Amino acid sequence: MPRCYTVQRPGGPQPEAALPPFPPMPDMSTRPEGDFQRIVVDALTAIWARVSRCRCSSRRSVRAS
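and the corresponding C-alpha coordinates:
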Protein backbone atom coordinates (compact mmCIF):
# COMPACT_ATOMS: atom_id res chain seq x y z
CA MET A 1 0.00 0.00 0.00
CA PRO A 2 1.67 3.28 -1.05
CA ARG A 3 2.08 6.00 1.50
CA CYS A 4 1.14 9.59 0.81
CA TYR A 5 3.83 11.99 1.96
CA THR A 6 2.92 15.59 2.61
CA VAL A 7 5.50 18.33 2.78
CA GLN A 8 4.70 20.98 5.35
CA ARG A 9 6.39 24.34 4.96
CA PRO A 10 6.59 26.70 7.92
CA GLY A 11 4.62 29.89 7.40
CA GLY A 12 2.60 28.61 4.45
CA PRO A 13 3.59 28.30 0.81
CA GLN A 14 5.77 31.16 -0.41
CA PRO A 15 7.37 30.09 -3.72
CA GLU A 16 8.00 33.69 -4.80
CA ALA A 17 10.29 34.36 -1.85
CA ALA A 18 12.52 31.40 -2.73
CA LEU A 19 13.32 32.70 -6.23
CA PRO A 20 16.21 35.13 -6.72
CA PRO A 21 15.49 38.40 -8.53
CA PHE A 22 15.64 38.18 -12.30
CA PRO A 23 18.87 39.69 -13.69
CA PRO A 24 18.46 42.79 -15.87
CA MET A 25 18.46 42.08 -19.59
CA PRO A 26 21.34 43.64 -21.55
CA ASP A 27 20.51 46.11 -24.27
CA MET A 28 20.61 43.98 -27.42
CA SER A 29 20.55 46.96 -29.78
CA THR A 30 24.23 47.73 -29.07
CA ARG A 31 25.35 44.19 -29.86
CA PRO A 32 25.71 42.55 -33.28
CA GLU A 33 23.18 39.91 -32.18
CA GLY A 34 20.56 42.66 -31.85
CA ASP A 35 19.75 42.55 -35.56
CA PHE A 36 19.20 38.80 -35.41
CA GLN A 37 16.95 39.13 -32.37
CA ARG A 38 14.92 41.85 -34.10
CA ILE A 39 14.48 39.64 -37.18
CA VAL A 40 13.37 36.69 -35.06
CA VAL A 41 10.90 38.79 -33.07
CA ASP A 42 9.47 40.30 -36.26
CA ALA A 43 9.09 36.84 -37.81
CA LEU A 44 7.40 35.40 -34.73
CA THR A 45 5.07 38.40 -34.55
CA ALA A 46 4.07 37.93 -38.18
CA ILE A 47 3.51 34.20 -37.67
CA TRP A 48 1.41 34.83 -34.55
CA ALA A 49 -0.69 37.39 -36.42
CA ARG A 50 -1.42 34.84 -39.15
CA VAL A 51 -2.19 32.07 -36.66
CA SER A 52 -4.54 34.24 -34.63
CA ARG A 53 -6.32 35.33 -37.83
CA CYS A 54 -6.71 31.69 -38.90
CA ARG A 55 -8.11 30.77 -35.50
CA CYS A 56 -10.63 33.59 -35.68
CA SER A 57 -11.76 32.70 -39.19
CA SER A 58 -12.03 28.99 -38.37
CA ARG A 59 -14.10 29.80 -35.30
CA ARG A 60 -16.43 31.93 -37.39
CA SER A 61 -16.88 29.17 -39.95
CA VAL A 62 -17.64 26.65 -37.21
CA ARG A 63 -20.21 28.96 -35.64
CA ALA A 64 -21.80 29.71 -39.01
CA SER A 65 -22.34 26.04 -39.86
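(Above: one complete record from the training split.) The helical segments are 15-18, 33-64.
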